[in-house]
């Protein structure tokens, strides 16, 4: 068991290296992809700026606090994007075109095999760069002073957030095993995750509940930001539980999907 | 590699217009057929659209929550800004014609070469193939989303004349969206990362069309820039007419004329670029 | 090495009606029907055999291969590859098999072939010497270096197939499944592939299961055949046995007589009813005869008696004809031979 795990970890590093190597071969693609995210996030920031031209406080959050939230939301999203965006291919066409079988004839875990196809999506570096910049810049504008505990927990918050993003993506991508293509529902879930870029306080309570307990995107940005900005523990203690639950559910659906694929084939 | 002559695609023996349209109708029904195979996609597209609308509606309603009933920033009220943002999302559904994806994919796979041996013009084929997509999206996604929001949030009711003007303007906006997506898809001739290009297009169009923020709420220079771009005719222009945010007949004529001008301009641009792309294809041998 | 026991695979197919009205109808209701793609197939393939898995389109070939490679689970029955049920122990099975699906790529779409091989090297944990030896072999036989650093998606079909075939053998698998492996290859490369598989088989005793529409592939690579029709095994045995099931054989001969070829042919057809004779190129005469009515000996005896033969040969029966007949339906009941002339004789 541990031996198999180690083997996959070593393979992951190797494949990451291949991905980096590819980066140099597709320089224009990389610049375009990362640039695309830069522009997208830049315009999103501009919208926040335009909102705060009209009002000083949004749902109890100041301009820099909202920017901090926006920037922080990009970190787990970017981290997830960096490693697991091959899942979009699964939702889009792998089952539809009968190409999924190639992950079943390799002597590694099929999910690993799928992700390994493109282990490193440099486009995500655009998101991570803007996110880091916004967090640092708005954090220092607020005069944010984190306690040692908060510093220690911060990377874990990002990691758990990324795993929640991955879980939701995996779950919706796995639906394609039954529905042939699940791209529209992946888009829908992705669109819902956009809610997490703004303070939850501006939404209707039913929507807040949805984002907290059904599609738990609140745990990828709002909940950790409340903790980092105010120090109030509140919901953040639930983060590990929610992450584990989401991951377990997504993996279960994936596994059932692979079994269903074996029954029906392409 | 053999330099084989390419078939003539854009011109040919003159055909009566009616016969021409008949040539392309099969592409329209085929487009609809392949669309209907994935019935669940309408539900999910609806959810995506509703979620997208909800984000901006909640955001801006928070801004207008405390504004006076006579009108807050940009002359909007809570009701009219909600109507604006919701209708912007509905227009965006009509603009999601998949032309950029499909053209880019066919260029990438080299399937365009197959299309070129058929006695029809590829861009026109794409146009007809996207019509049923637009129609199906309007009926199966646009109407339900509009109905849902009518139940949930207070909206302003437009004047009947403004609705008619909006419909004319919306048709032009659909044409603009087709052309913009066609041009986006054609970047597949020069880059393999059309995904990145499409993403840039999506964000730039959403922002500068006024889908996320009405142009009236942008600061002067930004608004001037947005007005000078074709995207303004995709969302902001039709909605200005719908909400009666114009000044007399001349203003209306100006709005429509600007849209029409951009449609003509982008048509010429895509025709020129398409020919250029074909000659490039010929050099590469497909 | 490979065992199938009462292997059954059924599919549920959604029924789609043609046309636009049909699409609209299926938007609201969907009917399903059950199709039995593999119908109680049983066979055993010994280690080191090279078997052609033959069947018409839709005969259940691909489905059976998918079950043997672990991609699909049978509806009932079971199969064993190296003593493992592939769909139960997919990873273990994957280590010991090499697969080519001619229509679909196994390689990394936007990586070059050398990069793909480096990944396979790691994934299959191929020992260094084996890896280097195999690369050298592919370099020699398949000219794999010529593929360079082009991403796989930009390779031509023939180039890609070379890489796919090499990839399937890279880890010295004891069993290989090749589904249409010579698609897109020209004659020279086809020869190279045949040479390669025969070399690997000789050196390592690899068990080969092959499907192909190319009869020459089958004849050049395989020593035994498994013929499936409508999901059932209708023939298993050596290729030679398969050829022996041919219902018609031919003889071509040259002679010194001055008779006009047309008259000679008419004479043969009259003398041996049910036989067809026709002038072939170079003044030869071709005689086709049904094996259920005449033995070779009877035909030859007749010809020797009537003509002054100078040369004569009997080609192997055409595999394609044999298969066409098998796909077309059952074999006809043998009819006792009536012998109108020539010496009576025993079996050929």
Molecular structure report:
The complex is a heterotrimer of chains A (266), B (286) and C (348). Helices cover 73% and strands 2% of the residues of chain A. Chain A is mostly helical and 266 residues long. In chain B, 72% of the residues lie in helices and 0% in strands. Chain B is built from eleven helices and no strands. Chain B has helices at residues 17-36, 40-64, 78-95, 99-109, 111-116, 122-152, 160-186, 194-208, 220-228, 236-242, 248-284. In chain B, helix 7 packs parallel to helix 11 (248-284). Chain B is globular, with a radius of gyration of 20 Å. Chain C is of the alpha/beta class and 348 residues long. Chain C folds into two domains: 2-7 and 41-242, 3-Layer(aba) Sandwich (Rossmann fold); 247-328, Alpha-Beta Plaits (2-Layer Sandwich), CATH 3.30.70. Chain C has helices at 19-28, 61-68, 90-95, 113-123, 128-142, 157-169, 187-204, 215-221, 239-244, 261-271, 296-306, 319-328; strands spanning 2-15, 31-45, 50-54, 76-81, 97-101, 175-179, 207-211, 224-229, 232-238, 248-255, 276-279, 285-290, 309-313. A six-stranded mixed beta sheet of chain C has the order 5-6-7-3-8-9, sandwiched between helices. A four-stranded antiparallel beta sheet of chain C has the order 11-12-10-13. Chain C has a three-stranded antiparallel beta sheet with strand order 2-1-4. At the A-B interface, helix 2 and helix 9 of A face helix 2 and helix 8 of B.
H/E element sequence of chain B: HHHHHHHHHHH
User: What is the number of independent domains of chain A?
Assistant: 1
| % residues in beta strands of chain A | under 5%
- Taken together, the total number of domains of chain B comes to 1
Radius of gyration of chain B: 20 Å
Spatial sequence of strands, sheet with the most strands of chain A: 1-2
Question: Quick one: how many beta strands of chain A?
Answer: 2
Helix content of chain B: over 70%
Question: What Rg of chain A, in angstroms, do the CA atoms define?
Answer: 19 Å
General form of chain A: globular
Described by its quaternary structure, the protein is heterotrimer
N to C succession of SSEs of chain A: HHEEHHHHHHHHHH
Contiguous helical run count of chain A: 12
């Amino acid at each position: 068991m541990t031996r198999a795990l180690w083997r996959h970890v070593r393979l992951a590093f190797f494949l990451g290296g291949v991905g980096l190597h590819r980066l140099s071969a597709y320089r224009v693609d990389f610049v375009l992809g990362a640039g695309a995210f830069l522009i997208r996030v830049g315009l999103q920031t501009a919208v926040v700026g335009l909102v705060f031209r009209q009002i000083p406080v949004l749902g109890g959050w100041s301009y820099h606090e909202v920017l901090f939230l926006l920037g922080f939301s990009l970190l787990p999203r970017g981290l997830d994007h960096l490693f697991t965006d091959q899942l979009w291919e699964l939702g889009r066409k792998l089952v539809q075109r009968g190409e999924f079988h190639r992950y079943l004839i390799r002597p590694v875990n099929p999910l690993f095999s799928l992700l390994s196809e493109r282990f490193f999506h440099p486009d995500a570096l655009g998101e991570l760069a803007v996110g880091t910049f916004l967090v640092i810049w708005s954090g220092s504008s607020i005069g944010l002073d984190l306690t040692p505990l908060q510093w220690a927990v911060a990377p874990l918050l990002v990691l758990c957030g990324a795993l929640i993003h991955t879980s939701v993506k995996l779950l919706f991508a796995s639906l394609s095993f039954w529905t042939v293509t699940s791209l529209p529902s992946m888009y829908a879930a992705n669109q819902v995750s956009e809610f997490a870029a703004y303070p939850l306080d501006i939404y209707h309570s039913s929507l807040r509940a949805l984002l907290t307990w059904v599609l738990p995107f609140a745990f990828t940005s709002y909940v950790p930001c409340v903790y980092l900005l105010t120090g109030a523990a509140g919901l953040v203690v639930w983060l590990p539980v929610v992450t584990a639950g989401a991951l377990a559910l997504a993996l279960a659906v994936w596994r059932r999907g692979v079994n269903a694929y074996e029954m029906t084939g392409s | 590699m053999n330099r084989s002559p390419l078939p003539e695609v854009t011109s040919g023996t003159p055909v009566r217009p009616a016969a021409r349209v008949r040539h392309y109708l099969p592409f329209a029904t085929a487009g609809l057929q392949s669309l209907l195979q994935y019935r669940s996609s309408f539900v999910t597209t609806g959810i995506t659209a509703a979620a997208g609308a909800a984000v901006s509606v909640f955001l801006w309603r928070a801004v207008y929550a405390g504004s006076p009933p006579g009108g807050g920033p940009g002359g909007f009220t809570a009701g009219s800004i909600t109507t604006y943002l919701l209708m912007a999302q509905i227009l965006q559904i009509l603009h999601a014609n998949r032309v950029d994806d499909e053209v880019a994919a066919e260029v990438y796979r080299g399937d365009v070469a197959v299309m070129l041996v058929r006695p029809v013009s590829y861009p026109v084929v794409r146009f007809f193939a996207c019509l049923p997509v637009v129609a199906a999206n309007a009926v199966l996604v646009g109407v339900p989303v509009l109905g849902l929001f009518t139940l949930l949030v207070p909206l302003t009711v437009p004047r009947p004349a403004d609705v008619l003007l909006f419909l004319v303007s919306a048709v032009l906006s659909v044409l603009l969206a087709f052309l913009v997506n066609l041009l986006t898809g054609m970047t597949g001739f020069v880059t393999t990362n059309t995904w990145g290009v499409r993403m840039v297009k999506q964000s730039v169009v959403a922002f500068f069309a006024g889908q996320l923020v009405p142009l009236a709420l942008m600061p002067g220079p930004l608004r001037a820039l947005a007005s000078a771009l074709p995207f303004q005719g995709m969302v902001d222009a039709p909605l200005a007419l719908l909400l009666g945010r114009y000044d007399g007949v001349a203003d209306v004529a100006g709005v429509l004329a600007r849209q029409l001008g951009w449609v003509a301009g982008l048509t010429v641009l895509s025709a020129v670029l398409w020919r250029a792309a074909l000659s490039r294809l010929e050099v590469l041998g497909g | 090495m490979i065992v199938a026991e009462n292997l059954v695979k059924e599919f549920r197919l959604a029924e789609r009606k043609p046309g636009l009205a049909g699409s609209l109808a299926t938007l609201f209701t969907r009917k399903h029907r059950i199709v039995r793609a593999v119908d109680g197939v049983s066979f055993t393939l010994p280690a080191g055999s090279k078997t052609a898995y033959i069947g018409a389109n839709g005969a259940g070939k691909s489905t059976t291969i998918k079950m043997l490679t672990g991609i699909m689970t049978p509806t009932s029955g079971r199969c064993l590859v190296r003593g493992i049920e592939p769909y139960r122990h997919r990873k273990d099975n994957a280590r010991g098999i090499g697969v080519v699906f001619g229509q679909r790529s196994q390689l990394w779409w936007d990586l070059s072939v050398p990069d793909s091989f480096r990944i396979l090297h790691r994934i299959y944990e191929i020992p260094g010497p084996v890896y280097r030896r195999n690369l050298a072999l592919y370099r020699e036989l398949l000219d794999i270096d010529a593929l360079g650093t082009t991403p796989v998606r930009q390779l031509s079909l023939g180039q890609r197939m070379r890489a796919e075939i090499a990839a399937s053998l890279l880890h010295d698998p004891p069993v290989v499944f090749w589904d249409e492996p010579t698609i897109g290859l020209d004659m020279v490369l086809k020869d190279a592939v045949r040479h390669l598989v025969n070399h690997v088989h000789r050196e390592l005793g690899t068990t080969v299961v092959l499907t192909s529409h190319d009869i020459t592939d089958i004849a050049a690579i395989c020593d035994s055949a498994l013929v499936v029709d409508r999901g059932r095994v209708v023939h298993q045995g050596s290729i030679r046995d398969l050829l022996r099931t041919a219902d018609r054989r031919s003889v071509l001969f040259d002679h010194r007589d001055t008779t006009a070829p047309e008259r000679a042919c008419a004479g043969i057809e009259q003398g041996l009813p049910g036989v067809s004779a026709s002038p072939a190129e170079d003044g030869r005469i071709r005689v086709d005869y049904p094996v259920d009515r005449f033995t070779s000996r009877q035909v030859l005896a007749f010809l020797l008696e009537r003509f002054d033969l100078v040369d004569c040969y009997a080609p192997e029966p055409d595999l394609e004809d044999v298969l066409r007949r098998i796909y077309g339906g059952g074999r006809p009941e043998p009819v006792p031979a009536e012998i109108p002339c020539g010496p009576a004789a025993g079996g050929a």
